[in-house]
Write a structure and sequence with these properties.
Shape: globular
Structural class: alpha/beta
Number of domains: 1
Radius of gyration: 17 Å
Strand order of the largest sheet: 2-1-3-7-6
Order of helices and strands: EEHHHEEEEEHHHHHHHH
Distance between the termini: 35 Å
Helix content: 40-55%
Strand content: 5-15%
Number of helices: 11
Number of strands: 7
Largest sheet: 5 strands, mixed
Length: 289
């Protein structure tokens, strides 16, 4: 992926630096949702709506870990990378909202933290992994997760890391379109198993939307290099519920899935990638929501 030397986003809230970081840009908070259980969110990209959509008013948690330590050169580069990817999502989604939906896109803010921070959706830490909090319309990311993604989950490459960001921004797109709110209403009426099935649809749709972003990054921005799509597809497969359960020494139990199988995640990323159409992704929830 061609990202070095390119324009970054102004919607970065950097809490990593000594003294709490510098706020740049931002967005008004809307809605009220909660965090997924630590075990799931630590291993899987995105937030489990079964808790994200129902735990309004969770305690924000405590700052912890390495917050306030000086930033390393690796930290600086990771922050610059995320900022460029976020800027690309802003350009792409603004254009797609206008051309495909006749709507105006309001970008998310991305919070960079180191070790731990607070959010209206609960405590964010190195263990929780990246997530989107609809309560304040912000993505939370400790960039050390990129190391986990590569070393522990087997998803290498900068485009795999870009997929992480694009997936979380995909949840913001869902929030902008009112999908998360409708899911919240529906899930409160369902059994745990049926609620999980709605959760899977929400996560697969975010994968599909990240594929739409990747399509546009290639066709309109020209920043995609040979092998990038394979990196993203591999990442999607590595964080499927069945693969994560197998790697944890468990027998895959589909009724417990909240994000979808490896095959499903790769399939829906590929659907967005090949079509470049938001409407293809919305088909996942049209019949349910």
């Amino acid at each position: 992926m061609q990202w070095k030397g390119r324009r970054g986003s102004n919607n970065i809230e950097d809490r990593r630096a000594q003294g709490g970081g510098i706020r740049r840009g931002g967005a008004a908070g809307v809605g009220g949702l909660g965090l997924v259980a630590v075990f799931v969110i630590a291993l899987v990209l995105g937030v489990d709506p079964s808790q994200l959509l129902n735990q309004v008013g969770l305690d924000a948690g405590q700052n912890s870990g390495r917050a306030g330590e000086p930033l390393t050169a690796q930290d600086q580069e990771a922050g610059e990378f995320v900022s460029v990817v976020l800027a690309d999502t802003e350009v792409i989604w603004a254009d797609l909202f206008r051309s495909q939906l006749n709507k105006t896109y309001q970008p998310a803010t991305l919070v960079l933290f180191k070790g731990g921070t607070q959010s209206p959706c609960g405590g964010a830490s190195e263990a929780t992994g990246p997530f989107y909090c609809p309560a304040d319309r912000k993505v939370y990311l400790d960039t050390s997760f990129f190391v986990t993604l590569e070393k522990q989950l087997g998803a290498k490459g900068d485009f795999a890391a870009a997929y992480v960001v694009a997936h979380e921004v995909g949840h913001h797109v869902q929030n902008e379109l009112g999908i998360l709110g409708r899911a919240n209403t529906l899930r409160s009426q369902l059994s745990a198993t049926d609620s999980n099935q709605v959760s899977v649809l929400i996560e697969l749709q975010a994968d599909c939307l990240s594929g739409v972003w990747a399509h546009e990054a290639a066709t309109t921005l020209g920043t995609v290099e040979r092998g990038d799509f394979d990196e993203a597809l591999n990442a999607a497969r590595q964080i499927g519920d069945d693969t994560l359960q197998k790697n944890a020494g468990q027998r895959p139990m589909p009724h417990t899935f909240t994000h979808g199988s490896s095959a499903q995640r790769a399939q829906w990323f590929n659907t967005g990638l090949r079509s470049g159409r938001i409407a293809e992704c919305l088909k996942l929830t049209d019949q349910v929501l």
